[in-house]
């Protein structure tokens, strides 16, 4: 009897140990999951800056590698690369943005003044049919009140734009702040990811390569489409005899790279200004060209350029980019395609592991 009790106790001991280990592992997994969620919530405010810092780190990595060969100290090499990146990226954007804001303010003032004073009536004097329609609209609507509301709206929008500009400046500073550490500690960060990852070192290298290729494809596609849109917009400005077509073409190209904005911020006020000065034909041509060509060419070219380089179907590339922008904002232009490509790579790796396990398992008995 005593022997049976001791045998049962010896049998229960491993079971208890196994149960304790499972409980401990479950608690650790729950703690890790909770920690990941909290870390994600803490990182969300910095997600745009982190994303653009990663993009710049990948794009300027060859330059940083050359600078690191000549400079002994990693901090100095990283600071030099950040300074060059800021000069190439931030300075031109700030100069163009300042000129753009000034010109946009002048255009808005001209449009509001034209609506308020009623000078648009002189502009439509030679177009009696259009004049009758607009005069009927004037009798039905309070154009003076609309002009006042438009001025108030422009004022409020300017205040919002100023606040938004402050946020963008903070994001820009954070971007280059994170870029410094990405460049200085990039190797250590990649090695840490390899240590914590369940994937093998060659699989992680393949993953890093796919992320780098994705970022390069996005940057290439963005610049290519922006170049096309800026060229088309500037060309129409030149053909219509509008002032500074090169400047406005460059501005439309830069705005085309911002997912939330676009070239319409330039050509819509220009078309309104042409209409208020009586050049209805030019206004109509610019509106049709802007809405039918400039505004739609990116939907056709961008998925083709990026999807081809990413080896993704055009529909998948389109969904990843537009869906990323909807979910994450402008940073989703990078996060969406990167998420798609990384997920597809992980699925391919998992399928390869299953094939290896099936081939290594013994055949079933007959």
Q: Care to count the β-strands?
A: 0
Largest sheet: none
Element order, helices and strands? HHHHHHHHHHHHHH
- Percent of residues in helical segments? over 70%
Q: Which strand-content bin applies to the residues?
A: under 5%
- Low-confidence stretches are none
Output mean pLDDT: 75
Secondary structural class: mainly alpha
Tell me which oligomeric state these chains represent: single chain
Span from first to last CA? Answer: 45 Å
Question: Radius of gyration from the CA trace?
Answer: 30 Å
Number of helices: 14
Shape descriptor reads: elongated
What does this molecule look like?
With 366 residues, the protein is mainly α. It contains 14 helices and no strands. The mean pLDDT is 75.
Briefly, what is this?
The chain has 14 helices and no strands.
What tags apply to this protein structure?
mainly alpha; single chain; 87% helix; 366 residues; 0% strand
Topology:
Elements: H1 2-43, H2 47-59, H3 61-70, H4 74-117, H5 120-123, H6 128-140, H7 143-184, H8 186-196, H9 201-239, H10 245-256, H11 264-276, H12 280-310, H13 314-328, H14 332-360
Helix pairs in contact: 2-7, 3-4, 4-7, 4-10, 4-11, 9-10, 9-12, 9-14, 10-11, 11-12, 12-13, 13-14
């Amino acid at each position: 009897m005593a022997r049976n009790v001791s045998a049962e106790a010896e049998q229960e001991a491993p079971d208890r140990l196994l149960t304790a280990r499972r409980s401990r592992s479950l608690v650790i997994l729950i703690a890790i999951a909770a920690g990941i969620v909290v870390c994600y919530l803490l990182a969300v405010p910095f997600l745009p800056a982190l994303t653009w810092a990663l993009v710049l780190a990948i794009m300027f990595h060859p330059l940083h590698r050359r600078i690191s060969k000549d400079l002994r100290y990693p901090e100095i090499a990283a600071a030099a690369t950040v300074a060059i990146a800021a000069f190439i990226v931030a300075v031109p954007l700030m100069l163009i943005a300042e000129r753009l804001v000034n010109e946009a303010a002048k255009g808005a003032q001209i449009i509001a003044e034209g609506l308020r004073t009623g000078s648009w009536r002189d502009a439509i004097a030679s177009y009696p049919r259009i004049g009758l329609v607009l005069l009927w609209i004037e009798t039905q609507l309070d154009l003076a009140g609309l002009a006042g509301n438009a001025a108030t709206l422009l004022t409020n929008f300017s205040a919002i734009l100023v606040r938004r500009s402050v946020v963008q400046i903070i994001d820009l500073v954070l971007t280059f702040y994170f870029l410094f550490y990405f460049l200085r500690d990039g190797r250590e960060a990649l090695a840490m990811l390899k240590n914590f990852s369940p994937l093998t070192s060659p699989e992680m290298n393949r993953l890093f390569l796919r992320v780098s290729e994705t970022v390069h494809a996005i940057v290439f596609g963005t610049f290519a489409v922006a170049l096309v849109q800026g060229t088309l917009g500037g060309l129409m400005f030149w053909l219509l005899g509008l002032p500074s077509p090169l400047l406005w073409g460059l501005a439309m190209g830069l705005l085309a790279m911002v997912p939330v904005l676009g070239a319409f911020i330039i050509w819509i006020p220009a078309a309104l200004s042409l209409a208020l000065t009586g050049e209805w034909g030019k206004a109509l041509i610019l509106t049709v060209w802007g809405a039918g060509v400039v505004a739609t060419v990116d939907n056709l070219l961008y998925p083709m350029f990026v999807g081809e380089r990413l080896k993704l179907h055009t529909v998948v590339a389109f969904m990843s980019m537009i869906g990323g922008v909807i979910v994450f904002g402008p940073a989703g232009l990078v996060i969406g395609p990167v998420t798609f490509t990384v997920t597809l790579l992980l699925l391919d790796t998992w399928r390869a592991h299953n094939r290896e396990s099936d081939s290594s398992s013994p055949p079933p008995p007959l």
